[in-house]
Design the sequence.
């Protein structure tokens, strides 16, 4: 089953256990599945939620076969390191500068793209990635093998002559490896430097290095999704709450009845949104005061100054016209009219009034002419009279004009109101039936003042209306925005509640999961530490990943001589390295990792001998189901591996002055010396007088090596401390002393060594031992090859 | 008796190109040949200067005596050289063969000491 499926099962189990509601479960599964699914669940849409028991993943197991390196770091001409692509332990031993670490770095670079140590270091160091001794092409060729697949995986990186950065490589590798992510998670490369750096880095960095191992990202990702979404909703709700206070505060400063109403509506923590909506949609017409101001603002003058002037003129003109017209002699005209009528009825005759005069045609003509004149005069007068009356009517209409300042208009400025009152009073101080001349003068002189006052009142009213409108309009807009946000927040309350519930559910779930997932690693770390610590008084009580975000850290509660403390504070450099191995070996060899290989560079730096024994055992155990490749700068680890009888392949790397790297199988130290001696004895190229002391030197070293091994096996076997044994071996200077120590457990028993070999193997053995001691200083040996054979027998006898 | 220069030449040859069968063992072989070169130079020096000292089989005593003949500085130089070459020629747990750089340095140093001892003869 894939790890994600296992994790999902844990989630399902926990959902059932905690009796989470369907709705809550859907939200959590949605968050687990992804952003889009979470959104869909919250929106009530169909979402593709994960199900139990999906298809399982097939894991491939990756082993390393060999790496060929040229022109890179300490390696000049092409050199190949062969690794058995199977479980087991391989040691690559070489002095610092021999080029062994170059192989480790080459493997790391080929697989990760950038060696961890270069990423950390300065440019001077980065400049050293190309080998200076060769003009040969710079290239790394790595062959890996997948379990059960015949075809090897080949990863090649080569650099052009002008490449200056490791990143400028031409890469050739299969497209679909998909190793990058597991490479980051498991990092099957451990170097002493990296371990020391990681262990002494900030707690959060260590946490980040460890966290991916737990493979609970899907659920921590789900938490992140929920948190992100909750933050969005929460922020909106908060903004609405803050907005209520802000809008209300602003409204309270506005002198406006609507603002006052709105402020009041906003007082409760959960305002009545519908009431606010209604307030916003109301207009002003119902307010009587507004109507008054509108009336004032909308009022017009009764006449223009020119018209007023014309009325005044008409008043004056009509009056003077009347004055000049003669008063009509109406009675005489009537008598004359009656006489004419009498004449027309009765004809010529004597005047009936005076009885003397004669009414004839002449008289008639004269009389009719007089009548015509009289009628004309009457018409003119009537006309003038009418003009005067009309002018007076107009004047009366003008005088009647007034602006009332009804109740509710108190907010007009006082001077405007006063001026208007004064002007109105002055205007009406003269009545329409006054003397026309007086009236005309009044009209002429007073109208301008009235007009100015009304104009100012109009402007003031308009200004008041405008201010009121603007003040409200601004706040109304704010209130409208707030209302929309508030309505949205109100709708989102349910979603927010769900998100909060989901987060409350998921937080302890993650903490429990983390502990559960970490437990096997923590246990393994503790076991490894138990093996590595040997004589250290630091006990590792159990590792935990604590906290989150900026307070995340890896805690190593430890006890020193029984007192609780933090492991980091009390550890030596060597112990810190050992702890680093204890912490990171489980990561590099995690069960879920596709990488069955593990590269460890220089793990024994600053480790004391007893820890090296512990390390050898740890590696041996790992090697049972891992391909473990260890690079080491000294022979301590191989020695421990040989002494403890651990099955391992050992390569020794040496480098010539021109960066030519040689790799040969490193056997047991004594066997290697013997094989060297055998090879030298047959090397005709070296003159025999030079060859002979070299052969005996190797023979002597073979004997010394086997003596050392025996001393160590005996003394460490009976519980002596490593350090004491080493001191003892160092104090035994001569070959005879070492032999005595090995054979008789007593460095001073040198006198018994010859007889021991003579008795055990025959008289030739004592001679061979002497030849080894003396021949090295140039004394010729008759038959070097025979000596090698004899010494081989002696080595076997001592074993 | 093999001359110091013979040893030095052989070391130079070993270091420059691998001899058949010496793959990987040349560092130790070179170190031992260098020590033989140094001892050979010492033997010649004592033969010419004080045969009685040369007859003494203890090399350490010979080197201690040297300070009275060639001065403290030079004798310390010989002593250090002899000890580091001896170390390389014996089996020591945990120690790997000398590197090419170290050998080059030792080779030059032995060459100079051989020259120095030759010049200091009476």
Sequence:
């Amino acid at each position: 089953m894939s790890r994600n499926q296992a994790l999902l099962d844990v989630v399902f189990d926990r959902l059932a256990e905690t009796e989470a509601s369907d709705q809550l479960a859907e939200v959590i599964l949605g968050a687990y599945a992804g952003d889009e699914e979470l959104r869909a669940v919250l929106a009530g849409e169909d979402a593709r939620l994960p199900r139990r028991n999906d298809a399982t993943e097939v894991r491939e197991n990756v082993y390393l076969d060999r790496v060929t390196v040229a022109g890179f770091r300490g390696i000049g001409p092409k050199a190949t390191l062969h690794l058995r692509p199977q479980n087991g332990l391989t040691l690559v031993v070489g002095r610092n500068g021999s080029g062994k670490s170059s192989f480790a770095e080459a493997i790391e670079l080929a697989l990760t793209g950038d060696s961890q140590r270069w990423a950390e270091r300065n440019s001077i160091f980065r400049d050293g990635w190309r080998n200076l001794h060769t003009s040969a092409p710079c290239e790394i060729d790595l062959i890996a093998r997948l379990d059960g697949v015949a075809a090897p995986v080949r990863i090649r990186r080569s650099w052009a002559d002008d490449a200056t950065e490791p990143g400028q490589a031409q890469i050739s590798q299969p497209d679909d490896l998909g190793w990058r992510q597991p490479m980051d998670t498991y990092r099957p490369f451990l170097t002493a430097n990296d371990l020391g750096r990681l262990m002494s880095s900030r707690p959060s960095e260590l946490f980040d290095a460890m966290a991916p191992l737990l493979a609970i990202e899907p659920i921590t990702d789900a938490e992140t999704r929920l948190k992100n979404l909750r933050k969005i909703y929460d922020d909106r709700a908060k903004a609405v709450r803050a907005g209520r206070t802000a809008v209300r505060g602003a409204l309270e400063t506005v002198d406006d009845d609507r603002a006052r109403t709105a402020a009041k509506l906003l007082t409760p923590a959960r305002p009545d949104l519908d009431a606010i909506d209604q307030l916003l949609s109301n207009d002003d017409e119902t307010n009587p005061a507004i109507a008054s101001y509108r009336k004032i603002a909308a009022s017009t003058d009764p006449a223009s100054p020119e018209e007023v002037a014309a009325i005044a003129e008409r008043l004056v003109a009509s009056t003077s016209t009347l004055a000049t017209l003669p008063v009509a002699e109406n009675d005489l005209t009537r008598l004359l009219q009656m006489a004419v009528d009498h004449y027309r009825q009765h004809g010529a005759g004597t005047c009936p009034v005076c009885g003397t005069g004669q009414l004839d045609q002449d008289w008639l003509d004269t009389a009719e002419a007089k009548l015509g004149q009289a009628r004309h005069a009457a018409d003119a007068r009537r006309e003038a009279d009418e003009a005067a009356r009309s002018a007076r009517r107009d004047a009366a209409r003008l005088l009647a004009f007034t602006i009332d300042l009804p109740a509710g208009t108190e907010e007009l400025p006082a001077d405007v109101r006063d001026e208007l009152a004064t002007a109105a009073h002055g205007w009406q101080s003269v009545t329409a039936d006054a003397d026309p001349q007086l009236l005309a003068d009044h009209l002429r002189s007073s109208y301008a003042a009235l007009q100015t006052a009304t104009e100012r009142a109009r402007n003031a009213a308009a200004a008041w209306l405008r201010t009121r409108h603007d003040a409200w309009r601004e706040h109304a807009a704010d209130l409208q925005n707030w209302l929309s946000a508030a309505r949205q927040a109100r709708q989102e309350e349910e979603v927010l509640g769900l998100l909060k519930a989901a987060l409350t559910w998921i937080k302890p779930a993650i903490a429990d999961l983390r502990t559960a997932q970490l437990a096997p690693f923590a246990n393994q770390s503790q076991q490894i530490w138990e093996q590595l610590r040997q004589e250290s008084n630091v006990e590792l009580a159990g590792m935990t990943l604590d906290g989150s975000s900026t307070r995340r850290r890896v805690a190593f509660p430890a006890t020193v001589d029984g007192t609780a403390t933090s492991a980091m504070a009390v550890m030596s450099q060597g112990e810190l390295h050992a702890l680093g191995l204890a912490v990171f070996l489980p990561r590099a060899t995690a069960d879920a990792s596709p990488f069955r290989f593990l590269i460890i560079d220089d793990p024994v730096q600053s480790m004391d001998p007893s820890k090296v024994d512990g390390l050898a055992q740890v590696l041996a155990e790992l090697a049972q189901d891992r391909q473990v490749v260890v690079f080491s700068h000294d022979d301590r680890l191989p020695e421990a591996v040989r002494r403890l009888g651990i099955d391992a392949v050992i390569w020794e790397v040496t480098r010539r002055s021109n960066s030519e790297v040689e790799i040969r199988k490193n056997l047991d130290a004594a066997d290697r010396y013997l094989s060297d001696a055998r090879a030298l004895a047959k090397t005709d190229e070296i003159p025999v007088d030079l060859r002979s002391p070299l052969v005996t030197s190797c023979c002597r070293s073979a004997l010394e090596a086997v003596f050392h091994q025996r001393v160590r096996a005996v003394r460490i076997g009976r519980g002596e401390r490593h350090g004491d044994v080493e001191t003892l071996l160092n104090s035994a200077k001569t070959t005879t002393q070492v032999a005595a120590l090995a054979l008789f457990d007593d460095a001073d028993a040198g006198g018994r060594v010859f007889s021991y070999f003579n008795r055990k193997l025959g008289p030739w053995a004592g001679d061979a031992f002497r030849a080894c001691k003396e021949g090295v200083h140039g004394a010729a040996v008759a038959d070097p090859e025979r000596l090698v054979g004899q010494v081989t027998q002696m080595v076997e006898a001592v074993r | 008796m093999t001359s110091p220069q013979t040893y030095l030449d052989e070391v130079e040859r070993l270091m420059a190109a691998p001899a058949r069968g010496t793959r990987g063992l040349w560092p130790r072989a070179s170190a031992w040949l260098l020590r033989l070169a140094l001892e050979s130079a010492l033997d010649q020096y004592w033969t010419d200067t004080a045969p009685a000292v040369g007859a003494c089989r203890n090399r350490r005593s010979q080197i201690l005596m040297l300070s009275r003949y060639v001065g403290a500085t030079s004798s310390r130089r010989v002593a250090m050289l002899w000890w580091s070459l001896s170390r390389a020629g014996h089996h020591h747990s945990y120690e790997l063969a000398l590197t090419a750089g170290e050998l080059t340095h030792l080779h030059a140093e032995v060459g100079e000491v051989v020259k120095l001892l030759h010049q200091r003869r009476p």
User: Anything to note?
Assistant: The helical segments of chain B are 4-16, 26-49, 51-55, 59-70, 72-89, 100-119.
